[in-house]
Amino acid sequence: MPGIGIIGTGWGARIQVPAFRSAGLNVVALVGSQAAKTAQIAGELGVPWHGENWRDLIAHPQVDVVSIVTPPALHCEMTLAALEAGKHVVCEKPTALDAGEADMMLKAALAHPDLFTLIDHELRFLPAMRHARDLIAQGRIGTVRHAELRSVNSSRSDLKRPWNWWSDALQGGGVLGAIGSHQIDLLRYLIGDEVSAASGTTHTFVNERSDATGQARPVTADDYMAATLRFVHGASAVIMATTVATHDEPNSVTIYGSAGALRFFDGKLWHNPGSGFVDVTPPHSRSFPAGIVGDFPQGTVYLGAALVAALAGDVRALDPAATFADGLASQRVLDAIRAGAGR
Fold first, then answer.
1. How do residues 275-322 score in pLDDT, each as one tens digit?
2. Is the peptide bond prior to 61 cis by the omega test (within 30 degrees of 0)?
3. Of 80, 96, 122, which closes a domain?
4. Which H helix or E strand runs over 113?
């Protein structure tokens, strides 16, 4: 089994460890910034090696793939080090702090063509998304005219939730990078086109949180964003994401064309040829371990399976993946939105 090392004890431990294991990857190492917490999590999950120095994980002889699940401010440095050590890389989104760093990462990836370098846009691997892309390419909704993507959740609505890197713009926190990057990449993937112009707004509704010591600290990262995108071939899109709603809603993607529409909502894909929406969701081809529920966790299982296949020689298994070139393209859009919003 290919060995993977995970840098990060949040999403990396909670979702990636069980998802990647179920796909056939051997999770051999885990690193976190807090030694005691990392040791406890590694013990609970049965990860054989743990530490707090990410460079030690990269050097681990059984680690073939490095999964970087850290604040974006660390992505570039960690990626360059992993590639230099001859390790495949799966990097969390957003790609980096800005397009300059993303460009450095792409150049490093191109200098190591024998290594897989992916941005963790796992929704690309869901059967429903791959089917949606095929339907659009086949002209089943005609020419794409416009799209609307919404992400509404309450994950940061609790005012008692402590300040952490997610509250800090300098570390790459905020909903634009966390969710907007997914929305931008997904649109590029589904309609097969590039963003030619982007504008939008970001806002911080919760301006202050207490850190782990109880000290009040300013929140500089956005918890709400909305943006309008224009694509090279004429399509437009509106994307919106919030983490401070009072309730959660399923993520939604609706793409309208000259001959119909497609909608992804609550895990299902719907096709409207002009006479009403019909469920066209393809069945899942994989089973999921306990706790792996929802679009992103399930997409992580499919991503892991693609990595296993690619490492075994089937490089086409990673065809849906977001490359570092995709990461740079999306980062440029994020930068344009931030610039227009005065961030």
1. 999 999 999 999 999 999 999 999 999 999 999 999 999 999 999 999
2. no
3. 122
4. none
